[in-house]
Amino acid sequence: MKLTNPVLPGFNADPSMIRVGDTYYIANSTFEWFPGVRLHESKDMVHWNLLPSPLSTTTLLDMKGNPSSGGIWAPDLSYADGKFWLIYTDVKITEGAFKDMTNYLTTATDIRGPWSDPIKVNGVGFDASLFHDTDGKKYLVQQTWDHREYHHPFDGITLTEFDTSTMKLKPHTARTIYDGTDVKLVEGPHLYNIKGQYYLFAAEGGTVFTHQEVVARSKTLDPHSFETEPDGPFITNLDTPGFYLQKQGHGALVDTPGGEWYYASLVSRPWNHPNESSTDPRGWSTLGRETSIQKVEWDDQDWPRVVGGHGGQVEVEAPKDAILTDAPLNHSRHDNFDKPALDIDWNTLRIPFTATMGSYGNGELKLIGRGSLAGTFDTSLIASRWQAFNFDAETKVKFDPYTYQQMAGLTNFYNDKHWSWIYITWDENKGAVIEVAQNDNNNYTSFLKDDAIKIPDGTDYVWFKTKVRKQSYTYEYSFDGELWNEIPIELDAAILSDDYVLQNYGGFFTGAFVGLAAVDYSGYEEAATFDYFDYTEFDD
């Protein structure tokens, strides 16, 4: 049996993978999307089931006003002393000299919760992980941030002892154990005690096409005692520009019950427009940073090596002792909004879904119009990841606006500066109309303008559809759910990619989403009612 990379398609970045018994778990970053931290479980590393997110309350996570790509960076999941430990970072500043952040700790005896109230750990740096040593001691391992403009901002990997009797760090024990290589930007550390030595896995080069993972080891945890693996890096795609998988690095190591080793890392699958060079630009990653798993073997010097070379493989031999499971590899789904809780595939921006945002159940979703999609405080939006390059998404909406400041419809969304949608709004001359608009790096364009499509009087519901076809996508509408009309506007999907956003903005860590939204910046809170949502993937 083989696993096919990426094993978690779509925005599933910075994987922290562990094994408890015969079950593997992965925790991923979620940034500004709520609830925080995405969890999956598997028995075979091939089929992965989505679990409820642990940070599902504002007690555990308060991100209101966070910048895009702030919030949850690189959570660390571990298991020790009969419980799960989750370290997570809430980043409040993403650009400039400072990275104001707080690292928290929460625990649970069951991966599905409940999770304990958060313990504030520190704010020294992001990408913090908790290392449980074989002697019972625990340490926080983290990237260290230096705001001083005459220093490099990535100031090595810091180790600090954690006191379980007080559940606090011992700041005076902090020391830099690894400075990284001349590639710089050392981050994402995970520490292991293997074969009587300490092995440190860390990312370098930034989470772009220069990304890589290095390994260093030491017989002690003394300052600056770690030596880097020779003939490295451990994994990178810098020198494999034509390979299907790119940007690999930043991940975690795990062993199987049978003694095999695997490494989970982030990965991207960029594509190019037909008229572009495949190397410059190197591509557009609309599905964001995903999760790949590579098999690892140990050489005769006890250094870990990726099977097949440091570029990795698309198809990888699954563990020999894997327990075959039956989880979907295709993520198509249909939601009639008839359950008492929102499906766990849905996400909101920065804040949880509450009565101030709307309601669901009995076959409908109501969204109360709030701030615009360009806002970072009160956005009435539910969305789920693009998890395939080619898909259709469809919905049915009822909305009765009486001002152009009221809008509701179907959106393709990256962040507050990069999104588009098809929506119902009000035109002073035509009444209720359909419009398509795009926000491209905060340059807003209404495409139909005076040609906005009038909704016939007496129409209760309007159907909307988007067709995403890798490099581009379109919108369609219907007044009966059977006869569809394509709006002749083809939008460039690259605008919803990490790489495009990076050109103008430092927060480029998520991926494209598709979702439902209602806006009423007049403040009168006009509500929209959605009857269903359908997401159908096609072969890439």
Topology of helices and strands:
Elements: E1 2-4, E2 16-20, E3 23-28, E4 33-34, E5 38-42, E6 49-51, E7 71-80, E8 83-91, E9 101-108, E10 119-122, E11 129-132, E12 138-145, E13 154-163, E14 168-169, E15 175-178, E16 187-194, E17 197-204, E18 212-218, E19 227-228, E20 235-236, E21 246-255, E22 261-268, E23 290-298, E24 304-306, E25 315-317, E26 333-335, E27 348-349, E28 358-361, E29 364-368, E30 380-385, E31 390-398, E32 406-415, E33 418-427, E34 431-440, E35 443-446, E36 453-454, E37 462-469, E38 472-478, E39 485-492, H1 498-502, E40 513-520, E41 527-537
Antiparallel strand pairs: 1-25, 2-3, 3-5, 4-27, 5-6, 7-8, 8-9, 9-10, 11-12, 12-13, 13-14, 13-15, 16-17, 17-18, 18-19, 18-20, 21-22, 22-23, 23-24, 26-41, 28-29, 29-41, 30-40, 31-37, 31-41, 32-33, 32-40, 33-34, 34-35, 34-36, 37-38, 38-39
Give a structural overview.
With 540 residues, the protein is mostly beta strands. It is 1% helix and 46% strand. The strands form nine sheets. Strands 26, 28, 29, 31, 37, 38, 39 and 41 form an eight-stranded antiparallel beta sheet that branches. Strands 30, 32, 33, 34, 35, 36 and 40 form a seven-stranded antiparallel beta sheet that branches. The two termini are 22 Å apart.
Note poorly predicted spans: none
Overall outline: globular
- Return Rg in Å: 24 Å
Give me the count of strands. Answer: 41
The percent range for strand residues is over 45%
- Average of pLDDT: 97
Separation, N- and C-terminal Cα atoms: 22 Å
Report the biggest beta sheet as strand number plus sense, adding barrel if it closes. Answer: 8 strands, antiparallel
Helix fraction?
under 10%
Structural class: mainly beta
Number of helices: 1
